[in-house]
Amino acid sequence: MSALVLDGLTKRYGSVVAVHGASLRIPHGQFVCLLGPSGCGKTTLLRMIAGLEDPSGGRLVIDDKDITEAPAHLREFGMVFQSLALFPHLTAGENIAYPLRIRGAGKAEQRKRAEELLELVRLPGVADRPVSKLSGGQRQRVAIARALALKPKLFLLDEPLSALDAKLREAMQIELKQLQQRLGITTIVVTHDQREAMTMADLVVVMSQGRIHQAAPPMEVYRQPADAFVADFIGLTNLLDGEVTAPGAVAVPGGQLHLPNLPPSGRVLLSVRPEEVIVHPAGSDGPNRLNGRLSFMRDLGASVEFRIDVAGREIVAVSRPQDRPPVEPGGPLSVEFPPAACVVLPPMAERQP
Ligand code: ATP
């Protein structure tokens, strides 16, 4: 049984289609990241799930119950906003207990639960501190604790870590993931940061221009991107235009590659990650190699990055320092594209949407 089903959810603002037919099944206990560039519709999608925005079309179902029309306060979801929306004049404990107070819980129960929740977010002993006296990371934890106060069915967070500095942000990503694993609560986080999504998510939902391009585990999104947008947005990749010339053979700038999974004919786009491209000294023989010239090389300590001109196109390759061939900038070399590393995608013009 799916915990949450999005069935063709659409949101229009006048002529702007912010979310276009989003369909997704989210099983119980998953950590989901809605990932995409600014304006792709991820906040609008989260707000529709939360009940803060009415869909223009489609349905939202939780545990087989249609909640498309249910008001936000009856959905029993916990939400953390980018702004955190804490009450500055209240203490950390009062902020956390606020949802319990409006449900009529007694003072002792409020206090007990606030302390439990502060333990849960690893912030014990600050119940009586005004939130205005807490650091950014501490306030973040208070907002998370408050959203969990009513034991929600679904935990929704909109760019929760974006106000934190890089180091704290990384630490909080790991902490949030561990907290979610301890609680087993289905969680949906909006982020534009692919590293953040890869760190936390069981399921990465990649969006662009209001559409879901792919929803898959992080390594699948990385290794088997559904289209050119996903391949390009997640990490670095080499995109090569190709034309299938014979069964299993594709002509690309600078030569020919032999690959499985090619269509019988027509144009294709190949995506090959830089760490999969193998750099060889010039003149060495082998399958699936193209000749090129080294245009730039940089030593990054743990790895070496090559920029190679192949028939006027730049190919990026990353190797271990010990595998680096003896070549100087401007010198010839050959680059190998192992068949298993080449993801065959539809050509640019035909990609969805
Ligand atoms: P960001 O990361 O910048 O917050 P996002 O991916 O969350 O972007 P949304 O905020 O969901 O994107 O916006 C998607 C599209 O819908 C944008 O083109 C935006 O301008 C438009 N939009 C969002 N809210 C409204 C609104 N209330 N009225 C009109 N247009 C809106």
How would you sum up this structure in a few lines?
This protein has 353 residues and is an alpha+beta fold. It has helices spanning 42-50, 92-102, 107-120, 136-148, 166-183, 194-200, 218-223, 228-233, and strands at residues 2-13, 16-27, 31-35, 57-62, 65-66, 77-80, 154-158, 186-191, 203-208, 211-216, 238-246, 249-252, 255-258, 266-272, 278-281, 289-299, 304-310, 313-319, 332-336, 343-345.
Q: Give the helix level as a range of percent.
A: 10-25%
CATH superfamily of the largest domain: P-loop containing nucleotide triphosphate hydrolases
CATH architecture of the largest domain: 3-Layer(aba) Sandwich
Mean pLDDT: 92
Q: What do we call the CATH topology of the largest domain?
A: Rossmann fold
N-to-C terminal Cα separation, in Å? 30 Å
Which molecules other than protein and nucleic acid are bound? adenosine-5'-triphosphate
Overall description:
A hairpin with a 2-residue loop joins strand 4 (57-62) and strand 5. This protein has two domains: 4-227, P-loop containing nucleotide triphosphate hydrolases (Rossmann fold), CATH 3.40.50; 236-348, Nucleic acid-binding proteins (OB fold (Dihydrolipoamide Acetyltransferase, E2P)), CATH 2.40.50. The chain has helices at residues 42-50, 92-102, 107-120, 136-148, 166-183, 194-200, 218-223, 228-233, and strands at residues 2-13, 16-27, 31-35, 57-62, 65-66, 77-80, 154-158, 186-191, 203-208, 211-216, 238-246, 249-252, 255-258, 266-272, 278-281, 289-299, 304-310, 313-319, 332-336, 343-345. The strands form four sheets. A six-stranded mixed β-sheet has the order 6-7-8-3-9-10, sandwiched between helices. A five-stranded antiparallel β-sheet has the order 13-12-11-14-20. The chain has a five-stranded antiparallel β-sheet with strand order 15-19-16-17-18, with no helix packed on it. The model has no long low-confidence stretch (mean pLDDT 92). It is built from eight helices and 20 strands. Helix 2 packs across helix 3 and helix 3 packs across helix 4 (136-148). The relative contact order is 0.12. It is elongated, with a radius of gyration of 25 Å. The longest helix is centred in the middle third of the chain and has 18 residues, at 166-183. It has 353 residues and is an alpha+beta fold. Bound molecules: adenosine-5'-triphosphate. Adenosine-5'-triphosphate is lined by residues 13, 16, 18, 36, 38-44, 192. Residues 13, 16, 18, 36, 38-44, 192 line the site of adenosine-5'-triphosphate (ATP). Residues 4-234 form the ABC transporter domain. It comes from Azospirillum rugosum.
